[in-house]
Structure formats: structure tokens, C-alpha cells
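I can't quite decide. Please look over this sequence plus C-alpha cells:

:::
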Amino acid sequence: MAGRLLNGLFPKIDHEVQSAVDKKSLDNIWRTSLVILVFESLALIVFVSTRERFDHAAWVSIGSATYCVVSCLIGALCAFWLKKHEEYPHIAVAIFDVCYYLLLSSWGVYVACRNYSLNEQILTFFAVQLMMVCFVPLKPFVSLIFATAIYASLYCYAYSFDGAKGLNIFNYVLLLIVTVTGMIVRFYSEVRTSEQSVELNKTIDQLEYNNRHDGLTGLRNRKALEEDVPKIIRSHVTAYMIDVNYFKEINDTYGHAAGDEVLVQTARWLKTVFSEDRCYRYGGDEFLILSDDDDSYSEDTFRFTVPSIPDLELLLSIGRAEGDPKDHDELFKLISTADGVLYKVKKRTHSPEFGGHGERKHQDD
């Protein structure tokens, strides 16, 4: 039981979820501060403009309203400044949340003490606490400590003034319990909402990744290529078309699992030589690289082995073409040129002189 209570007061929260909670807290404080700032400023202007004389009580009211306006202005500016930074430490937001809570709660206590001494209602204090419950998700142990301190400070004043005769201790403690419970419930509600939001974003990101990447090799696919065209054209491009020699025979002899491993190992090699975001699985055992580096790779073949079939030496044939494509059509003409060079390389690597089985048609591979 004690362990569950401690876990409830000191929850362990994932970093991404905590960041989402912090962001929501900053958004809430920013909006709430602006709303209070506007209404309290208008109330102050009306109060000042309608006064015929300014006695001590009037100046106290003006000072109290000004304190509230300045506190909300500081809160709004600090929240806006933190919101501008994409990455901010959680401790900074946590300290800001506590300071904001203490600023406005202190104002609520002051107004309540003044009203209590005048035998008036202390609704402002409870309104501030309600606002904190609704909009500032403090961690459970922080809520417990500071809410208790705030309620205790007001009670101490009332007790010193008239023995707290104007406060029903039972109702007062009950309101404290409701406030703390509400703040804790609000915090965990924000955590659950943020967890769902983070999971949803991860799912969306994964779906977008899968939509643009080949599931086997992890390389970008034809759809990604089409989307990348605007970023590639109007610059110097070296296109490489790469093909695994005798890939069909590998599948027939060693099985499709071995063939998949060949493709995976080929993709790994490509990512060590070229920029990963310019490597594409073009189709079957063909790969496309669109490099902005002329010297990325100058050979037209590459030999390697795969751990699952160590007795077989594999050969990649590589066709290369350079150009400065101005639009989509010119880029794909450049790719077609590289494909034509690849065909010539394959024709040579399939010849008996090169160690092949004889001349073959391009589509048979």
C-alpha cells in the first residue's frame, strides 16, 4: 500500500510523455494568463476611472490588481519564451509551474486575508485554486506540498485574526483535500492524454516511414523517390543503377531467404558508401543512388559475400551517369542513361572472360 502511494506521488514518466505534458502546461498558462490579464486590466481601468477620490483602501485595491496584472504578464511572457524553444529541460518548466502557482496563489491569499478582515467572502482564493486545478498540471507531491502550504498560510492568518471563527475547519480541510485531489487527477489525466498523443504520433510516423521505405532493406522506395525529386533537381547529380548478378539463380539455388539476405547485405554496403537518404530500392534486385558527390564510387563492379551463403561470391554490376537535371523528366532521363550503362556492364560481367556463364538478356537477371 505504501509503495503504491509513493509511486502515485512520485510517478515515473516517459521523457516524451513528460515533454507533451510540459507543452500543454505552457499552453494553458499562456492562454489563462492572457485572459486574466485582459479582464483584470479592464477591471483596474474601470475602477480607477470611476473613483472620485483615492483613499487608502482604493490604493490597496489598485496595488492588489496591479500585482495580479504583473504576475499574469510575467507568466504569459515566460510561457511564450519557453514555448518558442523546441527543446527545453523539464526542470525549467517544473520550476516555472511552481513559481506561477505561488505567484497567483499568494495574490489569492492576500485578497482573501483582506476580505476576511473586512468580514467579506474569500471567493477569490478559491477561484485561484480552481484555476490551478484546471490549468496547471503539477506533479502529485508538488501539488500536495504547495497546496497544503497555501491553505495553511490563509488559515494561520484567520486564526491570528479572530481564532479562525469565520472558517469552518471541516469544510476548509475538505476543500483542501478536494483541491489536492483535483490537481492530482488533472495531472494524471494530462499524462494519459499525452501518452495517447505520443503513441498516436509514433504510429503515424511509422506508417509514413513504411509508406516511403522498402520493408526488407530499409531503403527509400519509388514513392519516396518521386517525393524527393524537387530536392534533387537543379543541382549536379551522379546516378548509379546497381544490380545483383544472377539474382534469380541465387533464389532458385539457395532459396528466397538467402536471396533476401543478399538484398539486405547489398543495402548495408550502399549505406556505407552513399548517403542513406539518396539510396533507393528501385525494384527487385535493382538499386538506385542519386548522389551529389562525383567521387562517391568510381568502380563498375563490387564483389562481396553473405554470411548465410559463404561459399558464393556475389557480384554487383554498377552503371553510372552524371548530369544537371533541371526538371523531373531530365532526372529520369539521367536514371535511364545510368540503366543503359548498367546493361553494358552486366553484358560484360556475364561473359565467360569475366567468369560468367555466357551472355544473357538483361531481363533474365
Q: What stands out?
A: The mean pLDDT is 90. Residues 2-208 form one domain.
